[in-house]
Design goal:
This protein is of the alpha/beta class and 291 residues long. Helix content is 45%, strand content 14%. It has eleven helices and ten strands. It has helices at residues 13-24, 36-55, 61-70, 94-104, 123-127, 161-173, 189-205, 211-221, 228-235, 237-251, 260-267, and strands at residues 5-9, 28-32, 71-73, 85-88, 113-116, 136-141, 150-155, 177-181, 280-281, 288-289. Strands 3-2-1-4-5-6-7-8 form an eight-stranded mixed beta sheet, sandwiched between helices. Strands 9-10 form a two-stranded antiparallel sheet. α7 packs across α9. The protein is globular and about 55 Å long. The chain starts with a strand and ends with a strand.
Length: 291
Amino acid sequence: MDIRKIGVIGAGQMGNGIAHVAALAGIDVALHDLSEDRIKSGLATINGNLSRQLSKNLISEEERQKALLRIEPAPQVDGLRDCDLIIEAATENEQVKVKIFQSVCPIAKPEAILATNTSSISITRLASTTDRPERFIGIHFMNPVPVMQLVELIRGIATEDETFEASRALCAKLGKTVAVAEDFPAFIVNRILLPMINEAIYTLYEGVGSVEAIDTAMRLGANHPMGPLQLADFIGLDTCLSVMQVLYEGLADSKYRPCPLLVKYVEAGWLGRKSQRGFYDYRGERPIPTR
């Protein structure tokens, strides 16, 4: 199946990143969100990121302009009607995702593939809520999408080979490297990454080290590009908590229990960079640790 046009549901950090790389690869994109303001904000982010690539001589001005022309706003879900593949990139909440797919199924053409960018939720379970589980797949992009090379490809129990191969071909066209993961909670990357972040939060919670000490230790001691608490803020503490809850509930192992401090930060609305406060306070000229 030749995927010439994709629909992206969600114009936030992940959705606008997916739209960005697809348009740059020559694929038409319909970008949908709950409001026109969110779509406009997503398009502005795409324009800014393309301009950044232009300033670094990664793309040409002609490529930038053509990419922007390939992305059309779709304020109504009906605007996704002619898409060959529709990918959901909404918040990491199963009920929200199910509701999205239930609204998409009646308007999507019968041969269209439905995909989810979930980083942890069962592909099989999400697929079962649609009218086409055989044409449903997990395509998990890494954040930030224009920069990160990897895509996890996860098939549900009913996913057909044609769906899988078409999705893998799409990832190759986008210049991404595919890691095929089984449909287990959190797949590969987050199964390994999020427990490490959760353990770093426990280390803070138990007073073993400060925010700065923990991040410095992992940057310089393990050669990580950023510390685990800084990374948690970048991912979003609500997303970190959601993934840990999926792991804890799905694998029934106490080692995946979310740290109470992570729960407290999320309850306070301190979600990291997107809310300007998390393990660091981003409201000043430079980030300041909050503990």
